[in-house]
Design brief:
The chain is about 40% helix and about 15% strand. The chain is an alpha/beta fold and about 130 residues long. It has a 4-stranded mixed sheet, with helices on both faces. Helix 1 links the parallel strand 1 and strand 2. The chain is globular. It starts with 6 loop residues before the first strand and ends with a helix.
Length: about 130
């Protein structure tokens, strides 16, 4: 049985040095990576991953804006021990903390990247307030 293709979507990485370090680690681990454009938030995660059956979001006459200034890494077909291995490799390579990380599930493939980012932000805020409480 062929192993499912592993992929990491990278969004909002401003620091080019950090981005290249991440891509180098992923390449070493034989994991594909893709840098998403700034307006990728409009599209569904499934489309961004190239999953059959998903199409691009309509961009005509759209004036809506979405400002999400955080770096995001979305892990596809990378779970459990393999995810631990990837995160450990990032740490060993001296890659600074990536606050917003998500693992693709059958549910969130149907979400827009915006919804995924907003959900991660809410979950992060809830965890921070719980830690402070």
């Amino acid at each position: 049985m062929k192993k499912a293709e592993e992929k990491v979507l990278l969004y909002q990485f401003i620091d080019e040095e950090k981005l290249q370090a991440i891509r180098k680690v992923l390449q070493y681990l034989q994991i594909k990576s893709e840098i998403l454009p700034e307006d990728a938030w409009r599209d569904k995660v499934g489309y961004l991953l190239g999953i059959k059956g998903f199409s691009a979001a309509s961009r005509k006459e759209e004036t809506e804006e979405f400002a999400f200034p955080h770096e995001v890494a979305v892990f596809f077909n990378i779970k459990h021990k393999r995810l631990d291995q990837v995160l450990q490799a990032f740490h060993e390579a001296g890659i600074a903390h990536i606050k917003f990380k998500a693992v693709v599930t059958p549910f969130n493939t149907l979400w827009t990247l915006r919804r995924l980012c907003e959900t991660m932000q809410k979950e992060h805020a809830a965890m921070v307030s719980k830690d402070e409480g």
